[in-house]
Amino acid sequence: MSTTVEKAYVTARPVNPAGLPTAYEHGGRLTAEGTTVDPILVEIVQGTLASVEMEVETAIGRTSRSPMIRDAHDFRAGIHDRQLRKLTGRSYSALVHPVARDFPLAEMAEGDVFFHNDVYESEGGIGHLPDLCVTVPVFHDGEVVAFVQAFGHHDDIGGGCPGSMPSGATSVYEEGLAVPPIKLWDKGVPNKAALRIMTRNSRMPDSLAADLDAECSACLMGARRLSELFARYGRDHIEAAFDAILDATTETYRREILAKIPDGTYVWEDYAEHDGVDAPMLHTQRITLTKVSDALADPENGRPAGPRLIIDFTGTAPQAKGPINHCGDYVGGNFLKKWLAPILRNLADTPERMAELDVNEGIVPLIEMRFPEKGTLLTPIHPGPTNARTFVILRLLGVLAGVVAKAVDGRMPADQETIRYTGVYGHDRDGNDYLMREVLGGGSGGRYYADGEDTIHVVPDSRNLPTEFTEGRFPFLVERLGLAVDSGGAGRYRGGLGYEKHIRMLKDAHFMSIADRSILACWGLKGGKAGAPFHVTIDPGGPEERDVDALADAEPIRAGQVVRIRTTGGGGWGDPLDRPYEEVERDLRWGKVSVDGARTAYGAVARLDGDGVHIDAAASDALRAEIRSARGEEPFFDRGPGYARLAGDGTNANEFDWI
């Protein structure tokens, strides 16, 4: 950090919405405009960055202890330059901004490790307290030149219930231990007092300590790898390559993605359905998207002239009493820009090209975000609770997809699965406390060229817990893990299916769930139908059968009872009556659609005989004609029956759902 910037930090001290100083150097170029660099070196540097990021994540996965980190892989690594710009694009990551805000770069030393998880002091990079973040500076010739960072969802950091995600929390103080940016390691020496405070506040102290050690060690290793890169090629060449990597992303998205969106203004909204405190209601998240092709340059905010997307969140609902709020309005929405941008890749010419596009800091200059005043779901006021903020930021992915779909005649996927945490806790066979929690995926939305994917996980590289591991460690049996039949939304291209999982408890325990989309379904697009919602039943078919609310902290389960979990199906794309009979027949053979589902959703009459399942084409043609003749005008988006229940006026669509 330059001397000038350091003086500004000390004397001027402008503040962000959290009341914290923000005069740290960030977002600018490392080299002058027009600086040339060997394109081969750019490829070497880009490959090395990706390799180091993957090596850091591999090390964390192999040396951590908790099921959530080691097995479910709910953690991310990222590499940032000294201007705090994210250089890697394989997945999202947190931000370095709060560390640079509180610890000037000139005062950092090799072997330092910084830590934070405080939602309100994280500049929007950390959404809830179980996400613990470690940051390691990279040095070359005694100066900070980059950062390696990792954050992951840890088992427990205190708070009102095991797992630190109390569904009825009304303040962040109920959610666990909040730690602002601190120096966790000082020149290679761990701060044992800080570690002791954190582990003392956790119900799972051993796994917390082991996971933190894994993350710190992995990031220190990553920092050494990057130092070697600087030593080999020199700082000037490496920083020129960093600028070239981000410039290439900016130009690629400008040319291949933004050019596909017609100039104009488009509005759409979607909703979270409950906050754990108030009765279920429509918690609105609205985006007004404006595409401008000839925007003027805005050097003060690092935005070049040319195409730009303006994302305005005005109309978003007030801050919820319960824990579904997300602190998004920091650093100009820097985190949200990189969180939402992967949705835009769906506009690429081919699926193969879509998979090639990275999301790094290069997309930031192309997006301008406008937030409402403080006190909304995206601009909460401390100490508003946030542990279930996924209900908001994951819904925003769908809101952006929907508003872009309106602009491009539906050439976007229908709604995807949303993350949910399910689990059980109690005492194991030896009388010790245990917590088994996992992130179960669901179906992704149908696309204009293909069906959605089954049981995907929105967190990159995440996965369900292996049955062999959970049965060996926890007192239950997994009696079924498969696809939830008929859960995918009907369409010309069907939505992906969710999970169906049956867990039989061997000892009395408690079930917990932090889930959305139990009333409102994943919406269908351009004639496609909504998918099936999330649903949990305890003791299905038994004398104590009952449905469980999607937000539950301590639902009792008795030994011998089964918990049946069905996760969301993705929305369908296009008219289901246009789906070819051979594709419906294939779904029947594969067990993805039932005979009744084929008839009611697709107008396909199936018969069973000794040769298997067959579609009666003549009967199906007649049924489809009957269904078509009975139809009225339909909205562009199908929200499923849950919307009418919460809207309260009997309507199945809002004013923005029509084209």
TrEMBL record:
Domain of life assignment: Bacteria
Domain Hydantoinase B/oxoprolinase stretches: 38-576
Pfam families registered for this protein in UniProt: Hydantoinase_B (PF02538)
Name this polypeptide is given: Hydantoinase B/oxoprolinase family protein
Organism: Nostocoides vanveenii
